[in-house]
Amino acid sequence: MILALMAMVWRLPTVRAASTPNNNVGYTVHPVLPDNQISQKISYFDLRAIPGQTQKLQIVVTNTSNRSQKFQITVNQAVTNNNGVIDYSQLKPKRDSSLQVGIADVFSKDSAQTVTIPANAQKRVTVSYTMPSQKVRGIILGGIYVAQLNPDNAKSNGQIMIKNAFAYAIGVSLQEGTTVKPDLKLNQVVASQINARNVVTANLQNFQPGILQNLTVNARVTQVGNNRTLLSQKQGQMGMAPNSNFNFSIPWGNEALVAGNYTLYLTAKSGNQQWRFVRNFTINGPTIKRLNRHALTPTQPNYLLYLLLLILIAILLAIIGYLIYRNRHTHDTK
């Protein structure tokens, strides 16, 4: 079981205490905010940077347990996962096509480190970054990710796999100028599968270096030229990292799609910004067969079983009624 306590919320990159009984996860993490912190009232690195600047950032990791602990520290690019949540846990995420300057471009490679902290002790961990010589537009967003390591931990596909352990993340936002508004575009629309469930996925991309907050997406699918809705999905309270993309999923549910041409109608809203997309797409026969071969289909009502149960209940009631009648008839005869 993976228990990753991400000390993040998507609205703002922040850090908070873990929420468990007695808050006893065995360690805490907090940032040492520097002078170029935009606001001292927030508990993540929200920094005003300048071109060519090199700066060291420090966090304090406190081991509150009675045993020595080992931690892995990485500085990760902020991405958007397929739940519409800003994610800081991926070590080597796929780079978005719109990302010009990312966390990996400015933070030194030796920022990734493993530290051992004795029982009931604390340690300051330092990471450093250098801004490009040319001014960077918008926000560079990432997180300092602190993972508690156990002997049975493993790494897989560029992600930290933590068994019965915890992780914190402290946001890092670097900006040199004014805030840039996020913007959306619709990329590929395809039939796909998530956790053995058939879905239609619409890839949404925030191609600007600005954080997208309070995102609500409403989507429906029809046949081309027909306004009857076959599939629909609405989801709110989502967010997107700057220069990132994710697959918004529309479940097939009980609707069995067939090969053919379809139309996606999708609206997205964030604050006073709104986007409308209409896209035709095709699902071919081989794709339908491949998806249905591995899909978990929704359970359909077994009407034959229901009928047999009703007949059985009727027979039992008839037997009980007959026995009661025979018992009364025998009693009256006596």
TrEMBL record:
The chain crosses the membrane at residues 303-325. Residues 27-147 form the WxL Interacting Protein peptidoglycan binding domain. It holds the Pfam family WxLIP_HBD. Keywords: Membrane, Signal, Transmembrane, Transmembrane helix. The keyword Transmembrane helix applies. The keyword Transferase does not apply. Residues 1-17 form the signal peptide. InterPro entries: WxLIP_HBD, WxLIP_PGBD. Residues 159-292 form the WxL Interacting Protein host binding domain. This is Cell surface protein. It comes from Levilactobacillus hammesii DSM 16381.
